[in-house]
Design goal:
single chain; mainly alpha; Rossmann fold; Hypothetical protein af1432; two-stranded parallel ribbon; 5 strands; disordered C terminus
């Protein structure tokens, strides 16, 4: 049994624990890791390793699959249960590769086959450590982001005051500022809100439910105030890391609305507005009726607006074309029941809603209190 324990940054005296029931292997690895800038300690059993993990913080574990007593998979399970922030790297014989793959499915980062080369072990440990640090740094950024959003939520509370008494114009100003930040000049948020209201009415929802859906639709992208302009307004394709950042905006929006009493009922819609009926959406991968009904309604309304509006990367299509595209995606992106109700509404009603929201936006925008979202 082998475990390598690392702490700190490579090349700066990272502490390493080598655990192996074969003393020569254990000492060889300990000496080698010492020579590569680690501070190596040794243990002879998995139980001894777990005892050490209890005493000291751990970043990366390299565990052999086969061992007497507690085997590698059992050790991995214990580490994942007790120390979920510890990265795990498996060491296995060639004939045990399938077991190592199972370990990766259970949470191991990678595996090394033996007989091993010391340099390959060092590289694997280094890569595991780097990936682990990257994940922890990202978690730290998310925690920082949550704190920032909490501060912004407090600012929004002060800005909006007591929303039970605030005028609708104040909420309109916030929505206008959200749209303007993305250079959206055609009242996108108001339009999808009115589309959602019409669809919710067609489905026979109560007035209070419809109002919650309207608020959620209007504020669906409020979480983007926590996204950097460098990402939000980037003209080209986003990198994988930038997409991860962008996909946080539903969670940020939820944090914001959940902290404002009047808007709290709409928070679940904001959190779930990028979920898909087939479970392939984000941030939680909800499926079917796990997705709040308001979010399922919004999804159809938002897609209707996206298809029938000009975008930098495509021209708008007709409402009839949008109806057909939405129909084809029933059961995939959209709730079939919501789509069924949507298809009962003639295209002329949707075009009428669009014309009215554009007219209202142009007429009232100059009268709104101006909000700047930084």
């Amino acid at each position: 049994m082998l475990v390598v324990w690392m702490r700190g940054i490579l090349g700066s005296g990272c502490r390493v624990l080598v655990v192996d029931d074969e003393q020569p292997v254990r000492e060889l690895l300990a000496r080698f890791l010492d020579s590569r800038g680690f501070q190596a300690a040794q243990a002879a059993t998995a139980e001894e390793a777990l005892a050490l993990l209890e005493r000291e913080p751990v970043e990366v574990v390299l565990s052999d699959v086969q061992m007497p007593g507690m085997n590698g998979l059992s050790l991995l399970s214990e580490i994942r249960r007790r120390y979920p922030d510890v990265a795990v790297l498996m060491l296995t014989a060639c004939e045990d590769v399938s077991m190592a793959v199972d370990a990766m499915k259970a949470g191991a980062l990678d595996y090394v086959t033996k007989p091993f080369e010391l340099e390959k072990v060092a590289r694997a440990v280094s890569e595991a450590s780097q990936r682990h640090r990257a994940l922890r740094n990202e978690e730290g950024r998310l925690h920082d982001l949550e704190r920032t959003v909490q501060e912004q939520t407090a600012q929004l509370r002060a800005l909006l005051g007591d929303l039970d008494e605030a005028s609708e114009g104040t909420l309109d100003a916030l929505v206008a500022a959200l749209d303007a930040r993305e250079h959206e000049t055609q009242a996108h948020s108001h339009r999808v809100a009115e589309y959602s209201v019409r669809l919710a009415s067609e489905m026979g929802l109560r007035r209070s439910e419809i109002e919650t859906i309207r608020q959620g639709a209007m504020l669906h992208d409020i979480g983007k105030i926590g996204i950097s302009d460098n990402i939000l307004l980037k003209p080209g394709e986003l990198t994988e890391a930038e997409w991860r950042e962008m996909r946080r905006h539903p969670q940020i929006g939820y944090w914001i609305l959940n902290g404002i009493e009047r808007l709290r009922p709409a928070a679940g819609i904001v959190l779930s507005h990028h979920e898909r009926f087939d479970g392939t959406g984000y941030p939680r991968g909800l499926q079917g009726e796990q997705i709040p009904l308001g979010a399922r309604i919004f999804s159809v309304a938002d897609s209707l607006d996206a298809i029938t509006s000009d975008r930098p990367y495509k021209y708008r299509k007709s409402y009839d074309a949008a109806r057909e595209e939405i129909r084809q995606n029933a059961g995939l992106q959209f709730d079939p029941g919501v789509v069924h109700c949507f298809l009962r509404i003639p295209s002329i009603e949707w075009t009428g809603i669009r014309a009215k929201t554009l007219s209202d936006s142009f007429r009232t925008f100059s009268d709104l209190p101006q909000l700047v979202l930084e």
